[in-house]
Write a structure and sequence with these properties.
The structure holds two protein chains of two kinds. By secondary structure, chain A is mainly beta. Chain A has one helix spanning about 20-25; strands at about 1-5, 10-15, 20, 35-40, 40-45, 50, 55-60. Chain A has a five-stranded mixed β-sheet, with no helix packed on it. A two-stranded antiparallel sheet of chain A has the order 3-6. By secondary structure, chain B is an alpha/beta fold. The chains are: A mainly beta, B alpha/beta.
């Protein structure tokens, strides 16, 4: 599946099917610091992502206060 | 995963609440947390005019949307920081949201209205860009609220922001900063009260709120903030949070409950030590406030492009 990453915006290929939590673990991304959107909808950690899904891993941390 | 409330499919799992939520109940959770924060800390009263400090990011648009949905009369103020295409996209997000909710968005440009921008200020002061950025925001939001007849300024500081700042202040045992790290800063000398209605919401929750509400926000990180200390504190706290959900809330909300009261006298002492800036009248410890000194130095300097500052930073 195509997975869009941010900061900077880029796209990678990931083999499915894979659950959201497993995808984040595979990408070594914190579950506390990211949300996953599949086909335009926010999805929970146990959601199963398939090869045909359009997936975005969106970071939620902003650092403008330091 | 099922929603804890209605058993419909969940869109988010929130380990700190040991629960999952569908979109409508996530929105309700966010509203309930904001209502509780406002009530617990006497942030707002009905009928007050609120000016929301809007950056175009998830937190400021979420707090604006939440305050409007709770019936508060809230307008926005966007401050153009002059950080290249990042600022352009942020302004677009702020304007689009203002149009969507049909509320006024006041705009100030650091470059056009005050003769400098954040990259130039960072180069002139030789300090991290977040320093002059924060100073400019605090001063100009205060001044705009005072001039516009607003009772209160609301900012989008969330639980993660406050926990990270608290972590940094605690590591240094900085009593002055600890004493004033409160969700409400009282009005003084014609300057408005400042409130942080999102302090009970983690930033994963405010981002999720924007997504399920269909709010388009600036997703990209500020290029000036890359690698700053604040982000390091957030990463450290999130490592602990993943192993022990609820730690960030216990740390910050516990501070407010049990530590802040012990520092109240220190905070009051600090406030009485402030005088008025000879140039603009803002509260300050010196004769001329830090903002007026910054404007004097930075506005006489040639503009520094954001790309140049990033290249210099990358070489360090």
């Amino acid at each position: 599946m195509k997975v869009v990453l941010r900061n900077p915006r880029r796209e990678i290929d990931v083999a499915g099917p894979v659950r959201v939590h497993a995808l984040l673990a595979r990408l070594e991304m914190s579950r506390e610091a990211h949300l996953v959107i599949s086909n335009g909808t926010l999805v929970a950690g146990d959601a199963l992502l398939h090869d045909e899904d359009e997936v975005e891993v969106r970071p939620v941390i902003s650092g403008g206060a330091g | 995963m099922k929603c804890r409330v209605c058993r419909q499919p969940a869109v988010i799992d929130l380990p700190r609440h040991n629960a999952n939520f569908c979109a409508p109940h996530l929105v309700k959770l966010c509203r309930d947390q904001v209502v509780k924060a406002i009530a617990d800390h006497a942030m707002l009263t009905p009928g007050e005019r609120v000016l929301v400090a809007v950056s175009g990011g998830k937190d400021s648009l979420a707090v604006w949307d939440l305050l409007l949905s709770l019936g508060y009369e809230a307008d926005g103020l966007y401050l153009g920081l002059g950080i290249g295409s990042y600022s352009d996209a942020s302004a677009d997000a702020a304007r689009a949201f203002a149009e969507r909710v049909r509320r006024p968005l006041r705009e100030i440009s650091l470059r056009d209205d005050h003769g400098y921008d954040v990259p130039t200020a960072a180069a002139v002061t030789r300090r991290v860009p977040c320093s002059s950025c924060g100073l400019s925001k605090r001063h100009l939001f205060d001044a705009a609220a005072r001039d516009g007849g607003y009772d209160v300024v609301a900012t989008g500081h969330n639980l993660d922001d406050e926990a990270a700042v608290l972590f940094g202040n605690t590591l240094r045992w900085d009593l002055d900063y600890l004493a004033r790290q409160l969700p409400v800063l009282p009005a003084r000398d014609g300057f408005p009260r400042k409130v942080k209605p999102l302090v009970r919401l983690a930033e994963r929750e405010t981002a999720a709120y924007c997504i399920v509400r269909g709010i388009d926000y600036q997703v990209e990180e500020c290029p000036m903030a890359e690698g700053n200390r604040h982000l390091g504190y957030k990463a450290a706290l999130n490592t602990v949070e993943e192993r022990s959900p609820g730690t960030k809330a216990a740390f910050y909300l516990g501070f407010l409950d049990r530590m802040a009261p012990l520092l109240a006298a220190h905070a009051a002492e600090e406030r009485t030590a402030l005088g008025a800036c000879l140039s603009c009248g803002a509260p300050t410890t010196g004769e001329v406030c830090a903002f007026c000194r910054l404007v004097e130095r930075a506005s006489s300097h040639d503009p520094v492009p954001v790309e140049l500052l990033r290249r210099v930073k990358a070489r360090r």
